[in-house]
Specification:
Blueprint (H helix, E strand, L loop, with lengths): L2 H15 L5 H38 L2 H28 L2 E4 L4 E8 L2 E8 L7 E4 L8 E2 L7
Antiparallel strand pairs: 1-2, 2-3, 3-4, 4-5
Length: about 150
């Protein structure tokens, strides 16, 4: 099997295993997603803070302090990646680390769309076209038939 066939098989496998949510299923997953996304947003903020501290130290040339911050940042980045992997395992997609924006793939009228949720919202009540992003959010209507 050549590399092109392997790539096609891998892409087909991903499509076969992609999870699509109804609004009811997405809302059922929301408590777990909310906990993970809360941790992602906090971890990302911590990494940004470490980066700013490191930039200040590098101009003052404190090698020990820089090394310690680099180590903390590496640990934080690994934790962030682990959290993002958890979101992917659920079947949804993290779209924004600072807002805690998550999309849940769904099917509406035979086409793929996203159910859209942002940290702080009590439930998933909006959807958007895959190319529209959060700006194209629309309220979920009866057409989804949860």
């Amino acid at each position: 099997m050549d590399s092109k066939q392997m790539t096609q098989r891998s892409e087909a496998s991903r499509c076969e295993t992609k999870r699509f949510f109804t609004p009811e299923q997405a809302n059922s997953a929301l408590p777990l997603v909310q906990r993970i996304v809360t941790d992602i947003v906090a971890q990302y903020q911590q990494l940004e803070h470490l980066q700013k501290r490191r930039q200040k130290l590098s101009s003052q040339e404190r090698a020990d302090d820089i090394s310690a911050l680099d180590s903390l940042a590496a640990q934080g980045a690994k934790r962030l990646n682990d959290l993002i992997d958890e979101i992917k395992l659920i079947g949804c997609e993290l779209k924004d680390w600072t807002l805690g924006l998550v999309d849940f793939p769904a099917i509406l009228d035979g086409r793929e769309v996203y159910l859209c949720w942002k940290l702080g919202e009590k439930q998933i009540s909006h959807w958007h076209e895959t190319h529209a992003g959060m700006i194209g959010r629309q309220p979920i209507g009866d057409d989804f038939g949860s």
